[in-house]
Sequence to fold (169 residues):
Amino acid sequence: KDRFVVLYLGDTGLRRGTGDAIKSVNLLREKIPDILLVLVGENKEDIRLKEMVHDLDVMDYVSFEGWQDVSFFPSYICMAAVCISPLKRNPHHDTTYANKLFQYMAMGKSLIVSDCPAQADVVRDTRSGLVFEAGNAADLADKIEWIYCHEEERNQYGENAKQAVDQKW
Fold:
């Protein structure tokens, strides 16, 4: 409540772009003082992510929820202002669809995804959010700020996402 929640669901390993998400929050905390990155999931690399949060002094802006039962996912998605999939580019991420995209979309949420072709194509084709350059925390921060400042478009992206899941996916 009373926070601009940026949500990530799933494996929190660094190859998933979670470190970039944390760095983007650091870049945004003065522009969006109520920002909160919520990470629902876990990975053995979480210790590195938690060290990054401490080193950047963003403890008040990042919440590690750990792995949760899938039955709680709708509640997390519902509270989010925007949902992210900041995957790093690699042959697997470039050619597969992350389940989280469709979970986010089914709940009518706008998306911000990295430019891994498979997920970027879904977001562009459905007009359900924004695409940033994978591995570029500053570009991710720019896209989050834009979504924050453009509530009407954010809501429209979410409606487009829901409609795309209902009609195609």
Summary: The mean pLDDT is 97. The helical segments are 18-28, 46-55, 73-79, 91-95, 99-106, 117-126, 137-149, 151-167. The longest strand covers residues 4-9. The longest helix spans residues 151-167.
